[in-house]
Amino acid sequence: MAWHTGYTLSQTVFSFLYVHALPDIDPDTISPHHHDPDRARPVELVSVVLRASVLGLLKCCDLAWRELVKGNVYDCEDWQSDKCDVPMSEAYPVSRILGILDEACVWVRNSSRVRSTWRTALTHRLVLRKTLVELFSALLSKDYFRFRPLIETARVMLQHVRASPPPPPRSCSPAPRAFDPQFPRVLVSAIPLQPIQLPEQSKVWDTLAGLLDSLEQLSVLIEIPDLSTWDVVGTLRIWQPRPNQSLAYVRSAFQSAIYENGIILNKYLQKHAVDCFLMEALQIPYDSFISSFQTRWVGPDSLPLRHIERTITESHWYNPPRRRRYCMKSLFDWHELYATLTDVQKHLAPVQSGTDVVTRLRSVVLMRRLETISDIVLSGFQLSLYSVNERPLAYWYLARVLEQHLTCLDEIIEVLPSSMPRYEFQFRARYLTALQALSLALFAVCIFLLHFPPLANTMGSSWERLRLNFLRRYKWAFMHEYEDFDVPPVGHPNFLAFTTSCSVILQDKEFSPAEQAELAERLLTGSTTAPGRMAGPWTPDRMEFVSKMAKVCRDLRRLPKSMDELRTWDVEQLVWDPDVHPWFPVMRNRS
Asked: Which pLDDT does position 285 carry in this prediction?
């Protein structure tokens, strides 16, 4: 499991010396003089039981390596692929490994030479390893229907293993010598490595339990064809990560399930993503949308439908820094699609009656682009990227983008019939309004730092420095490729507008940060009774996140009640800790 958390194979699995001694403990080639009768230590414990366990371990690593190497996660960033030229049972088919583990189980159950106290414990460990091999193999072959019984068996075996831990070896025992933390020095490795301190055994079992929980969620999610639910689950995994459920192997497995080799959810073509996209926001099937296009198209060229199709799919299962970069790059694609739809609309015959679906689609595309911008800004807080001087600009920009986002939502909700998407968008509107209110409150509090001692005395040319930081932090908004379009990008940051907003809010006698926090709390508390309809089985997780944010708002009600009160308010009470909340600070109790 330490390899799954990011260490190299040479530091973890390959430090187990029996991995390198498999030919020496093969029962078919083992030396005859090793068969001396010793009821306390029968040689089969090594040649049958231990060998089966090691082969099963290596096969699990091999199957996981094959999933990780697909490219859904990044080598040397999310995981370490270097095998150091050590074989990992690649030549053994899964069926052969399972047969060897079955043989070991039969020998343990039937042999009179195994102590009764160890018989059950060894069987549990062998069955656990066999189940993991089957589970990893099922994931690689996308046999998701096999997940649940295998996961249940693995959990039962893990529970038995945790309930009966082996006694620690005595000081005179040779058992510890089976592991050599210095062994990587003799392996062919691309990078120099140091021995590591492996986690406690209980934490290893916790990591394995988290892996099983994640794969169980995948087995549930794979049966849900609506990609909106995948979007909700992916978002929750980013902003509210569960312990031991963000392993690179798990994230790769989710990404492989949703999209691989042009196939979505292991059974749909790329068109399914566009279907879900249009049904969620427009309640229009893709075929009807195409028919409407073709009927109204009067342009000289063919319909640019391919461009629309390939822009929809996105990933929520990158690591946070990688996803942030991905979102930055995707903004140009969303703008290109928005500009394309704007140009397409010029070549469509006017709608005689009803709603213009192209106009509605433009609003949806713009909404998705603004949503991506919000994710980029919020991820900066989660990753602790912003300096003290950058926080006011980030909160101001977030509030500004959310205002445009809410405008798009209002336009979409207005034309949607009473349906699941309408309820979902109404939930998002309440949630985003609360997020905007809290962002405005913190913008007001944080911007005051730029004008008030002791920080202002150390800033020097604060505005010039802030402008340079602005250009560096939001460089994705100033790509020269945007100049190729007649349609200007919507939602990009504007430093002059920020400085103007700073002057306005500092002079606003009626603005109250505390009241904004109270408004956000009321909206979020109301949202817990109407949590939207697209989270599916993950609705409790979504409500947990909303409740956690409402708790932060309740804490921030102690913010100043007016801008004048800020002059005597102790701003050092605010503490930003992504482990407490990814975006907003909490109040530190002053002793």
From this structure: 81
- Could you tell me the two tokens for 134? 């089957």
How far apart are the C-alpha atoms of 169 and 178, rounded to whole Å?
12
Instruction: Report the chain's terminal Cα–Cα distance, integer Å.
Output: 43
* CB 588 within 8 Å of CB 574: yes
| 5 token code pair | 């958390």
Q: Which of 557, 549, 555, 559 is nearest to 581 (CA)?
A: 549
Give the H or E element holding residue 347: none
Which value, to the nearest 10 degrees, does the dihedral of the CA atoms of residues 220, 147, 312, 306 take?
-130
At 19 the pLDDT is: 93
Task: Pick out the chain residues at pLDDT < 50.
Answer: 452-460, 591
Residue environment code for 144-175, b if the CB has 16+ CB neighbours within 10 A, otherwise e: beebeebbebbbebbebbeeeeeeeeeeeeee
Q: Which two tokens stand for residue 87?
A: 């074989």
Residue listed under structure tokens 């492989």: 256
In the numeric block, which tokens belong to residue 138?
Answer: 């099922």
pLDDT of residue 32: 56
What is the pLDDT at residue 390? Answer: 92
Q: How many helices (H) and strands (E) does the chain have?
A: 19, 4
pLDDT at res. 541: 92
Exposed, middle or buried, 461 (CB in 10 Å: 0-12/13-18/19+)?
Answer: exposed
Q: What tokens does 340 get? A: 């394309």
Residue type, position 457, single letter: N
Closest of 269, 309, 258, 221 to residue 72, by C-alpha: 258
What SS3 string covers 358-417? HHHHHHHHHHHHHHHHHHHHHHHHHCCCCCCCCHHHHHHHHHHHHHHHHHHHHHHHHHCC
**How would you class 551 by CB atoms within 10 Å of its CB: exposed for 0-12, middle for 13-18, buried for 19 or more?**
middle
* pLDDT (0 to 100) of residue 282: 79
The closest of 316, 297, 324 to 250, measured between CA atoms, is 316
* Phi, psi for 312 (deg, rounded to 5): -75, -40
Q: Quickly list H helices, 23-170.
A: 44, 51-68, 94-110, 116-140, 147-163
Among residues 412, 483, 400, which one has the least CA distance to residue 436?
A: 400
Contacts of 581 (CB under 8 A, 6+ apart): 548, 549, 552
The Cα 552–Cα 578 span in angstroms is 12
Q: Is the peptide bond before 169 cis (omega within 30 degrees of 0)?
A: no
Q: Do 158 and 128 meet the contact criterion of CB atoms below 8 Å apart?
A: yes
CB 492 within 8 A of CB 328: no
Nearest to 401 by CA among 440, 450, 362, 445: 440
Query: What is residue 264's three-state secondary structure?
Result: strand
